[in-house]
């Protein structure tokens, strides 16, 4: 019998492998035919996978800084799916289709989990039919053919639910085993009672007086008098004494079995990994976890409750490092992804019936009519004949599946942001129930019904993913399986690779940022960015032209743009005016020239524009260079305070020195000793050579043996309080990799600052709509200009927040923050008491989310600006961000002493108290939220 059981299990696993293989063949056939480009989210996720591929080329497993940067590669979306894609990219090469090979792994996990759940809750037959249904569900195969997180999430949640189910079942098995042991022990005790009765019967022939054949003292084995623990005549129905190891009935206080510990650990790890795929895991597993926790409390099964709590803590240890690093961006990004998206897409409010029936209405699209109705008919027929049937209805198993599915349905309905793909993780559990219902059909035609149902589902899938039936076939398949078909694109290729190649061909030594104005599924910032990442991350795509006030800066800051004729895609009404203004400035202005045009498959035109005068030009030289030289400086002879001043630097040197070079440029007043108080005597223009855009591209190493000349066109900002006079140039080279420094010989050049400042706004702030002719400041200068607002608290932060998102678009890797940090560190070593530089350094580190170094910088700020409560508030905020509430509360004590009524200070103090469990203090301080004006 055991051998037969093993053979049956092996055959089932073989069938399961065939199911997986057939699904894999159909998927890879679809990808082999498809010539489409990834849309918005798909391209974004593909790019993230390439980032992790790049990061894992040279891992530093024991470096805390490396791990922090590793988690920061994906700040809002958990990265496990990207990380698991890396081996497939490493083995099979980069590309959208090759990245989807990871879905073969997720399919294996999903099918194995579904099969195992079916076996555990029902039987092998149900497990195999459920696995087959999973392959054929429209709600799953549509997203199996796209590089999205929803299908990996489905596999991860199903596996976690399987582990939770096994942990739940381990208690049932333990109770059964204890029940069997109890019965065996009772049977043994009854047998002992019979033996005692036979050996020592109560008889009148037994002498009651001392006898030479009987001991005078009572025998330890035969009591002479009645005992409260032993009846005079042993009863065959009662044990002689209770067993110390066996309760009379199963009890929650029984020792926990080793298997329950194993499955608790497995569930904790799988739950943590599932959250690392996507944090919406909690929407699906919340209800089963609470259900089991409440059951453990009701049964007073404290050991089981402890196991469940330990599993949850273990899951937190798994996803905690990523969440701890990015928790603030997770919260802010979650608000944008739910509330903002729901409002923009017009999703029904949760106070309407439409919100609660939304996913129910889409069940036929997720499942198809045959897979939904035929199993339910089988269930109905079973209930009608169940009194005369020998079949077993697995009520407890169905109840457990209902706990998962109903809870997931209700919680996802409560989420105001609705989309079909958000709920596909509950489909595998539904497939198990449907498979069980299929097996309830009467045996004489049940086999034909099951195979006929699967056959219809296979035909529906083929007609949905392959253009086999034409218009008639499409109409017919919509009857049995409603929903959008997902055919492979067989037409002309889109020109994304050609666009990227054209940019690299024109600027082979530079990293470029491409401004993308249209936003269609085929032409958008994400997929152009993805194809740029495939080219060794030499071109980045970014959506600009979305804010009318910032259009002039967008046009000034970028050298490349693409525009499109015809429909512009998902451009919302509020940004259409800005996009039109950007298109007009590029196509009709005199700053850009049309580089190339492509006719797209939809018969519209894609236009690539390039700035006529490039901000950075790179030219190879015939001879080598040992050190960086400043060959020429072109600047206006006169300038006024507070107005951007165009300047062009021409550098030359070796490729390594130029690419790693930071330059500390100072325009110094010749009469600095006679400057009155309150005025500054210099202009700082520190930054990277070529604005850190030098990129080796695909060129061979011998191409970089010669020297290079870099023409760097930018603008500097004379401070508003600068003293009039003549300013001469000084420059120092700083190697950002080695720390090497040396003075740079500079040409004779000077700038005269006029005494009459103009009443004009700095270029660090948004300009007017007609100021596209004004020069744009480099990003490091803009960062230092924004940092001057920090001592003002919240009023000063509002314009800073407006600008950070804008300039981050121009520098996709935010290298300007690193440039600022390294140059400011050097400056502060020379001037340790310069408060303006200290604030700027702290700001640059906060933007990098480098908690430890930001805290050190802000501690320096509090020393230099000790009478400003906002300085302590910034320090406390970063301490809270790093989960140091006690240190934050300590940092806030001087601020409370300076001004205890500032809402910002009291709110931060309340958060610190809340994180330490001081609820009364937290409640008192958080009342100041009402006074906060944001």
What this model shows, in words?
The model is unreliable at 200-252 and 758-770 (pLDDT under 50). 54% of the residues lie in helices and 10% in strands. Helix 1 runs parallel beside helix 7 (124-136), helix 15 (369-385) crosses helix 17 and helix 22 packs across helix 23. The protein is an alpha+beta fold. It is globular. It contains 33 helices and 16 strands. Strand 4 (592-599) and strand 5 (605-611) form a beta hairpin. Strands 8, 10, 11, 12, 14, 15 and 16 form a seven-stranded mixed β-sheet that branches.
Structure at a glance:
With 934 residues, this protein is of the alpha+beta class. The chain is built from 33 helices and 16 strands. A hairpin with a 5-residue loop joins strand 4 and strand 5.
How far apart are the first and last residues' alpha carbons, in Å?
73 Å
Mean pLDDT, as a whole number? Answer: 87
The major pleated sheet works out as:
7 strands, mixed
Tell me roughly what share of residues is in helical segments: 40-55%
Radius of gyration in whole Å, from Cα? 36 Å
Number of strands: 16
Oligomer: single chain
Shape: globular
Low-confidence segments, given as residue ranges, are: 200-252, 758-770
Portion of residues in beta strands equals 5-15%
What would you call the structural class? alpha+beta
């Amino acid at each position: 019998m055991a051998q037969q059981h093993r053979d049956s299990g092996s055959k089932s696993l073989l069938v399961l492998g065939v199911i997986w293989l057939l699904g894999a063949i159909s998927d890879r056939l679809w990808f082999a035919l498809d010539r489409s480009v990834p849309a918005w989210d798909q391209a974004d996720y593909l790019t993230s996978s390439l980032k992790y591929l790049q990061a894992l080329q040279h891992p530093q497993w024991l470096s805390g800084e490396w791990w922090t940067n590793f988690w920061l590669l994906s700040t809002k979306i958990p990265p496990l799916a990207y990380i698991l894609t890396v081996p497939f990219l490493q083995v099979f090469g980069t590309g959208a289709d090759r990245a989807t090979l990871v879905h073969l792994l997720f399919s294996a996990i999903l099918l194995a989990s579904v099969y195992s759940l079916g076996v555990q809750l029902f039987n092998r037959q149900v497990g195999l039919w459920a696995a087959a249904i999973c392959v054929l569900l429209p709600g799953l195969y549509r997203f199996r053919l796209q590089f999205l997180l929803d299908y990996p999430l489905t596999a991860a949640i199903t596996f976690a639910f399987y582990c939770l189910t096994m942990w739940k079942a381990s208690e049932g098995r333990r109770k059964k085993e204890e029940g069997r042991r109890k019965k065996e022990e009772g049977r043994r005790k009854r047998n002992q009672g019979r033996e005692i009765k036979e050996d020592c019967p109560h008889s009148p022939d037994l002498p009651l007086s001392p006898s030479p054949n009987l001991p005078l003292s009572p025998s330890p084995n035969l009591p002479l008098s009645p005992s409260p623990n032993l009846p005079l005549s042993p009863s065959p129905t009662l044990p002689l004494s209770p067993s110390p190891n066996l309760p009379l009935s199963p009890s929650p206080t029984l020792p926990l079995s080793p298997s329950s510990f194993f499955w608790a650990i497995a569930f904790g790890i799988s739950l943590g990994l599932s959250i690392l795929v996507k944090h919406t895991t909690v929407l699906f597993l919340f209800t089963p976890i609470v259900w089991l926790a409440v059951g453990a409390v009701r049964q007073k099964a404290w050991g089981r409750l402890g196991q469940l709590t330990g599993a949850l803590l273990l899951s937190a240890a798994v996803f905690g490092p990523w969440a701890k690093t990015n928790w603030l961006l997770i919260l802010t990004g979650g608000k944008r992804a739910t509330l903002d998206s729901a409002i923009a897409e017009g999703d029904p409010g949760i106070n309407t019936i439409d919100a609660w029936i939304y996913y129910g209405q889409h069940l036929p699209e997720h499942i198809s009519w045959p897979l939904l109705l035929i199993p339910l008919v089988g269930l109905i027929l079973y209930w009608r004949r169940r009194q005369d049937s020998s079949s077993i209805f697995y009520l407890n198993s169905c109840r457990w599946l209902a706990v998962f599915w109903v809870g997931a349905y209700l919680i996802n309905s409560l989420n105001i942001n609705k989309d079909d793909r958000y709920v596909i993780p509950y489909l595998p559990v539904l497939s198990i129930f449907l498979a069980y219902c299929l097996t309830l059909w009467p045996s004489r035609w049940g086999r034909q019904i099951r195979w006929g149902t699967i056959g219809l589902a296979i035909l529906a899938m083929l007609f949905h993913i392959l253009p086999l039936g034409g218009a008639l076939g499409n109409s017919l398949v919509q009857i049995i399986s409603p929903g959008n078909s997902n055919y492979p694109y067989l037409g002309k290729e889109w020109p994304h690779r050609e666009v990227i190649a054209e940019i690299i061909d024109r600027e082979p030594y530079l990293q470029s940022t491409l401004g993308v104005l249209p936003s269609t599924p085929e032409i958008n910032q994400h997929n152009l960015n993805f194809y740029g990442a495939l080219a060794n991350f030499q071109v980045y795509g970014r959506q600009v032209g979305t804010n009318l006030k910032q259009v002039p800066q967008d046009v000034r800051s970028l050298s490349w743009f693409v525009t499109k004729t015809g429909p512009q895609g998902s451009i919302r009404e509020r940004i259409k005016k800005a996009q039109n203004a950007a298109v007009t400035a590029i196509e009709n202005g005199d700053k850009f020239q049309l580089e190339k045009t492509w006719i797209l498959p939809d018969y519209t035109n894609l236009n690539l524009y390039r700035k006529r005068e490039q901000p950075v030009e790179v030219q190879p030289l015939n001879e080598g260079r040992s050190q960086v030289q400043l060959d020429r400086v072109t600047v206006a002879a006169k300038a006024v305070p507070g107005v951007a001043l165009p300047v062009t630097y021409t550098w030359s040197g070796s490729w390594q020195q130029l690419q790693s070079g930071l330059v500390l440029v100072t325009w110094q007043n010749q009469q600095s000793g006679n400057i009155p108080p309150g005025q500054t005597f210099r202009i700082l223009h520190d930054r990277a050579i070529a604005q850190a855009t030098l990129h080796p591209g695909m060129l061979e190493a011998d191409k970089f043996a010669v020297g290079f000349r870099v023409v760097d066109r930018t603008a500097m900002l004379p401070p508003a309080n600068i003293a009039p006079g003549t300013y001469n140039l000084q420059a120092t080279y700083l190697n950002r990799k080695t720390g090497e420094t040396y003075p740079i010989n500079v040409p004779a050049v000077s700038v005269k600052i006029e005494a009459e400042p103009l009443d004009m706004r700095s270029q660090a702030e948004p300009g007017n709509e007609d100021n596209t002719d004004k020069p744009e400041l480099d990003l490091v200068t803009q960062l230092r200009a924004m940092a001057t607002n920090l001592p003002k608290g919240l009023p000063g932060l509002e314009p800073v927040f407006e600008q950070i998102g804008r300039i981050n678009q121009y520098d996709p890797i935010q290298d300007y923050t690193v440039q600022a940090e390294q140059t400011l560190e050097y400056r502060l070593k020379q001037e340790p008491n310069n408060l303006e530089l200290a604030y700027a350094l702290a700001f640059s580190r906060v933007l990098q989310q480098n908690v430890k170094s930001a805290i050190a910088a802000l501690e320096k700020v509090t020393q230099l600006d000790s009478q400003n409560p906002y300085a302590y508030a910034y320090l406390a905020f970063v301490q809270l961000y790093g989960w140091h509430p006690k240190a934050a509360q300590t940092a806030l004590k001087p601020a409370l002493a300076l001004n205890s009524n500032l809402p910002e200070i009291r709110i931060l103090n309340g958060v610190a108290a809340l994180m330490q469990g001081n609820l009364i203090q937290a409640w008192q301080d958080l009342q100041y939220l009402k006074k906060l004006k944001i």
